[in-house]
Amino acid sequence: MKGKKQSFKERIVVKASGDDAIEQAQEIAARLGLSWEPAPCSSACMSEATEQDLLVLRVSSNGLELIKADDPKLSGAVRVDFTTGRTAFRRKQQKKELLVRAVEGKGKTQLKIIDATGGLGRDSFLLAAAGHQVRIFERQPVIAALLADGLERAAEHPETAAICQQILLTMGDAVPALKAMQEIRAGEGEGGKESVDVVYLDPMFPERRKSALVKKELQLLQLLAEIEQSPEQLLTAALLVAEQRVVVKRPVKASFLTERSPSYSLSGKTVRFDVYLGGLLSRNRVSSG
């Protein structure tokens, strides 16, 4: 008989990589409501993790890391780093990115963007690097903590500090916030202070078919998910707020997020961006539909 499914707080323990990280580990554990182990935990000790420690949130000199020590297929740490690797490469040639083209459309002005499904924030960081103001919503506290840690380190790096000034991270569900923005704007007219140009969605909904190509970090993040977001509620809330467009990231061969068809799509080799035009006309369609 299967027991009750554990909450993410019961599946994670916070550890420190050394004595100098213990105080920070305590602070993170208290803030997220997680348990922590006072004994310093190096890379070597990760192999000694018990089955109860399904996930380890480790504070190290490299930053905050998420680890699943008892699964060899998920070995290694997930850490947010905007200054090196693939993210740095994308940042330096952001105008060639399909994401930027989908979000900007034909316009060249600075946009106010909401990333309603922030995740590890790589796409948001790319949009901020392209010169746009981005507000990120991430409702999973551990993922939000990983993202916040990456942004804090990027804010101290000379090549990325200015980009971080373009980003605001909010830990919470975007749907209630989007609905509140719409209510404020409805009370103030179309020129209300809560105006948003673009809402970006990259929802982590489980695929119907398992794929061996699913990345390690996505598998780890899926372990944290407890309650799925409704794709219909998410898209509807986004359409009611976006002045210009809603952009939805999907696997290139996947179906649309909902039964609602996009205005058009931009497809790459592995991903597709479905674009739903915003503005008053689209909001009337959403309201009547």
Characteristic terms for this protein:
single chain; 289 residues; alpha/beta; Rossmann fold; five-stranded mixed β-sheet; 10 helices; 21% strand
Layout of SSEs?
Blueprint: E1 12-16, H1 22-32, E2 35-36, E3 55-60, E4 63-67, E5 77-78, H2 85-92, H3 98-104, E6 112-115, H4 122-129, E7 133-138, H5 141-154, H6 161-164, E8 167-171, H7 174-188, E9 196-201, H8 216-224, H9 231-241, E10 242-251, E11 264-267, E12 271-277, H10 280-288
Parallel strand pairs: 1-2, 1-3, 6-7, 6-9, 7-8, 9-10
Antiparallel strand pairs: 3-4, 4-5, 10-12, 11-12
Helix pairs in contact: 2-4, 7-9, 9-10
Task: Provide an overview of this structure.
This protein folds into two domains: 8-78, Rossmann fold (3-Layer(aba) Sandwich); 85-288, Rossmann fold (3-Layer(aba) Sandwich), CATH 3.40.50.150. The termini are far apart. It is built from ten helices and twelve strands. β1 (12-16), α1 (22-32) and β2 (35-36) form a beta-alpha-beta unit. With 289 residues, the protein is an alpha/beta fold. The protein is globular, with a radius of gyration of 20 Å. The longest helix is centred in the middle third of the chain and has 15 residues, at 174-188.
| Residue share in β-strands | 15-25%
Q: Specify the CATH homologous superfamily of the largest domain.
A: Vaccinia Virus protein VP39
Biggest sheet details: 7 strands, mixed
Assign the structural class, choosing from mainly alpha, mainly beta, alpha/beta, alpha+beta, or little secondary structure: alpha/beta
CATH class of the largest domain: Alpha Beta
- What gap, in angstroms, lies between the N and C termini? 44 Å
Query: What percent of residues adopt helix (DSSP H or I)?
Result: 25-40%
Number of domains: 2
Shape: globular
Rg for CA atoms: 20 Å
Oligomer category: single chain
